[in-house]
Amino acid sequence: MTKTTLEHCTVEREGHVTIVTINRPDAMNSLHYAADIELSGVWDDFESDPDQWIGILTGAGDKAFSAGNDVKAHAASGTRRVMPRSGFGGFSTRFDISKPVIAAVNGFAVGGGFELALASDIVIADEARAWFAFTEPRFGLAPLAGGAQYLPRFIGMQRAMGILLTGRRVPAQEGYDLGFVTAVAPEGKTLEVAREWAEMMMQSAPASLRATKQTVRRTMFDGEFVKSFPIDMPEVEAMRNSPDYLEGVLAFAEKRPPVWSGG
Question: Which of these is catalytic: 115, 174, 192, 247?
């Protein structure tokens, strides 16, 4: 096994399995642009390494898989949240990784963290610690890095809208029942179960895994779907130009309720 510690994540190679751990536990594994870029490079390396067959993505600590956007960093910047073409965490909107990736959701997955899970091929969720939510509208934002695109396709529009428009928490078991969670792991065993799934997959030929994954994803995510990243609809531009776009993150940073202008 080899382990590399970067600024915002760690990368472990266990035989043919690469384990990428978001390593910002003090910030609940939330991410900003610099972290996105670092992780994008990690996924580039994974894809180009012929000795690595399966990827696992998880978060450091036992509370958060990822809290999504680093709202404090966003507020401090005073500008729009910028993302690389590969999306949140360098992963949520990329379609060029041919190898299977497992999300080991060891804690809550909010906003971009939820999008990272949805962009993965298999989702293992901790039965006690994992829950999912899209809270972006509460901060004057919207889940545009995969949430609004993936979730309706996976579970149907009406059920997805009930999650996207309310910000409510979806426990691991409900996620399994809805269909976006592959398996629920016993408390504290998420990474262990993810490794077991990786072992099952490695009983198959790596080329067969890649061919199967890409056939499924190209069927599910056709050209029109891919074109929805990014969205340039008038309503999205209006949101980004609204004073509420920064009010939400400023209110969070200042620990006060937001005062929406409605503009």
Answer: 115
In-domain check, residue 182: yes
In the prediction, which pLDDT does 206 show? 97
Q: Is residue 236 part of a domain?
A: no
Residues ≥6 apart with Cβ < 8 Å to 181: 105, 123, 124, 125, 172, 175
pLDDT tens per residue across span 188-240 = 999 999 999 999 999 999 999 999 999 999 999 888 887 777 666 788 888 88
Is 7 considered catalytic here? no
Please tell me which residue in 7, 47, 136, 235 is annotated as part of the active site: 136
Angstrom distance (rounded) from CA 107 to CA 130:
4
Domain that holds residue 50: 2-186+206-224
Residue 70 belongs to a domain: yes
Which residues, in sequence order, are bridge partners of residue 140? none
- Tally of domains within the chain: 1
Q: According to DSSP H, which parts of the chain are helical?
A: 33-48, 71-77, 112-119, 147-155, 157-164, 172-178, 190-201, 206-220, 223-226, 234-241, 244-253
| CA-atom Rg of the chain in angstroms | 18
What CATH number does the domain containing 99 carry?
Answer: 3.90.226.10
CB distance 240 to 98 below 8 Å? no
